[in-house]
Amino acid sequence: MSRLVFLLEERSMKVFLGALLPRLFPGLPFLCVPHEGKQDLEKSVPRKLRAWREPGARFIVLRDNDGADCRALKNRLSRLCRKAGRSDALVRIACQELEAWYLGEPDALAEAFGDETLRGIGAQAIYREPDAVPQPSAELEKLVPEFQKISGARRIAAHLSKERNTSRSFHALLGAIERAAAA
pLDDT tens for residues 127-167? Predict the structure, then answer.
């Protein structure tokens, strides 16, 4: 099985995937390469894809949307991959931020942070469609005052599931991983 290489916008994504993937995809060989934000990722993608010499490596580029036009952003990143000779690289966008995936599973939030009141947030209109929450990280900080990006990513990744999560962009990532792993 060839290794999946994730080119990521930030370190919290690396921590998140490092804790999530072994649980949901046992035995999947992967490497997470974090960057220092959106601009660093976009500058780095063409160079890394052209220079990568590992036979059979499959690539997934993951970036937050942060209010941008999802389709335009995905198209721009896909063009960068194609220009680097890797038209097989998959691009996935976390809408609006990685933290929307956490809001997509209130039970996992409650389990991760030991707060049973979080189980009920799914009934609130703002959280029914987690990918539409404008600033999920700010919402998480309101709900869980001790929330921090890195430690929060590790904690929540231990509890998220394929079955209960309501975030469409989370499921798009999982589907991309399944397709890339099967190729």
Answer: 999 999 999 999 999 999 999 999 999 999 999 999 999 99
Count CB atoms within 10 A of the CB of residue 31: 12
Q: Average the pLDDT over 55-80 and give the result.
A: 94
Pair (9, 69) in one structural domain: yes
Alpha carbon 82 to its chain centroid, in Å, reads 21
Residues 19, 74 within the same domain? yes
Q: Does residue 52 sit in the same domain as residue 136?
A: no
Residue 133: left if φ>0, alpha if ψ -120 to 50, beta else—which one?
beta
Q: Are residues 88 and 20 in the same domain?
A: yes
Task: Answer yes or no: are the C-beta atoms of 49 and 89 closer than 8 Å.
Answer: yes
The predicted-structure confidence for 95-108, as pLDDT tens digits, reads as follows 999 999 999 999 99
Cβ–Cβ under 8 Å, residues 167 and 101: yes
Q: Which domain holds residue 135?
A: 99-157
Closest by CA to 101, choosing from 130, 126, 125, is 130
- Lookup: tokens for 11: 């370190």
| pLDDT band per the 50, 70, 90 thresholds, residue 183 | confident
Give the H or E element holding residue 30: strand 30-34
